[in-house]
Design goal:
The protein is α/β, with parallel strands linked by helices. The protein is built from six helices and nine strands, in the order βαβαββββαβαβαβα. The relative contact order is 0.20.
């Protein structure tokens, strides 16, 4: 379902896998200090190793990045990261939840689980971004965001190190914005001011 994009989303969810970390760090580094839309990130990582993502994202974004914990309230301006081997979901009312339900697309955390729950909780106030990756996790979730009237964004497959994931998401969510990796930071920065196209 297409429709006008919300001028200022209330939540930005980002998912990526192989080849996405450097693009994510670059995009967050380009956000202005005044960018206050909360961000929830799922990257496919080893389920058995401690994640360094909160440290890396804090440095890149210049704002605190927290590993998600169950029932944590989503705050403006913060960045949240799914912990290894847990799905992270967004609940109605603006809190995070963790789950050890079965992997989706062989992944836990799953991008689809995050995106679908965010779309159900925030509706048209959701923006979702799918980055590089080698499977199709995120495609169904981005479609759900689009169906709820939210803003769908993918890293342009031509610039992705592994284009399978953004290409699948683009096919699943017609009307999604395909943005080259080098331009993602600027595109996201415009969200807070409503400067993106519908």
């Amino acid at each position: 379902m297409s429709g006008p994009a919300l001028l200022v989303p209330e939540l930005l969810v980002i998912g990526g896998s192989a080849g996405s970390l450097d693009v994510l760090l670059g995009a967050l580094a380009a956000l202005p200090v005044a960018f206050s839309i909360p961000i929830v990130v799922v990257l496919h990582l080893s389920p058995t190793q401690p994640s360094l993502l909160p440290v890396l994202l804090t440095r890149a974004a210049g704002r605190p990045a927290h590993e998600a914990i169950d029932k944590l309230r989503i705050e403006r301006g913060a960045v949240y990261v799914a912990p290894p081997n847990y799905h992270v979901l967004v609940e109605r009312g603006g809190a995070l939840a963790l789950s050890i339900d079965e992997p989706v697309h062989h992944c836990r955390p799953s991008i689809d689980v995050l995106f679908e729950s965010a779309a159900d909780a925030y509706g048209a106030a959701t923006a979702g971004l799918v980055l590089s990756g080698a499977n199709e996790d995120g495609a169904a979730g981005l479609r759900r965001i689009r169906e709820r009237g939210g803003l769908a964004i993918v890293e342009a497959p031509a610039t992705a190190l592994y284009p399978t994931m953004p290409a699948a998401a683009l096919a699943s969510a017609p009307g999604a914005h395909a943005v080259p990796a080098a331009e993602l930071g600027a595109f996201l920065a415009r969200l807070a001011g409503g400067g993106h196209a519908s």
